[in-house]
Protein 1
Amino acid sequence: MLSKWIKRLSPLHRAREKELARAAGRVALSIHRYKDVSQDIQQEIRNNGFAEFLIYDRGVDDGHN
């Protein structure tokens, strides 16, 4: 219990916690942007009417290759 309190007071620990929070925010933002772009691309493919001719390789070996 005392060690947690001391760590919280440590400037180095606070700096690391802030950096971790910033990194987590950047990752969440990147994931959100990726999802938005992916949805935009999928919608554009549907709008262009050629989606039925596309073959997607999702990295899953289903034995039909």
Protein 2
Amino acid sequence: MLQKRLELLYASQQMDADTYERIPSLLGELENKLGVELQEDNAGAFVSHYIKAIQRVKAGAPIQEDPSFIQMAQKKERLFQWAIESLHPFANDNVSLDGEAVYFVSYFEMMLGEEPVC
């Protein structure tokens, strides 16, 4: 499951040790939820984005997205919830994860072969 990509991201200091230790189990949970095996060809870009998003969330500076895009992404309730859940372990209580979730929903739709909502 994308181990080489994770090792490269860690070696290039794009993620900290805490994230590196926690990300495999989080990706495994996501595989179970999506029912899709995450591989380089279907999830490589997502994993790189996920790592960057985690680092932004940890720094208290997640992406802030236009409210209309957030509303569109929220129409995919299950995917939007999974996106929030995948970032929540790294967030403090004062940080909105909705902007980051918009992009995750798009990735999830792609992995599932669904029509994108935004």
Protein 3
Amino acid sequence: MLEQLVEINNQIINQISDEEKKEKHLLIKKILDDKQCFLKMNIETSYAILRELNIPEENLKSTYLNLIDPINKENLVSVE
């Protein structure tokens, strides 16, 4: 799921000509580099990022819950 959000953000960055919006998405890119970023931020910030990535309002809760689900191995950092 996180990889999909990174890809969506990259597509937005490549399509944006407005420098202010581009800066916002470059900041989101830095945040998304941390695989556990959604575990480290509050729900309001998480929802704001998801909205910036054009996640439909009706999918925000399920997307957020998927991102913070401890069973979702995609969100866990490998300790090898």
Protein 4
Amino acid sequence: MPYYFTEGEGNNVAVVLIGMVDIIAGIIIFFSRSWHLSSNSVVAFLTFFYFCLGVWSLATNMIRKNFFDWRGVVDIMSAVCLLLIFYGSVYGIFGVLGIIIVIKGILGIFLMTTKEYP
């Protein structure tokens, strides 16, 4: 028997999936100094994904006059880190940024799965 999403529940699944991708990308960025990931197609896809996600997040929050969108800024920083990793340039600050991205993913999953519905 197939499962049908209730109204608004499909958006929750998308947010949880994006949170899981955040965690995976944060782990990749954190371990980029020890793993050889230059010219990797997964890193290239994640770079494109995070650039689009960050631009979309920043643009929609600017339209709503919310100028304190830290998640969009973190997505753009993720895209820049992944782009540098793709081209073989890895820096020590990537460990800290990887931890921030993992925390963002865990926070996104936690806030979406603990939301109460009336």
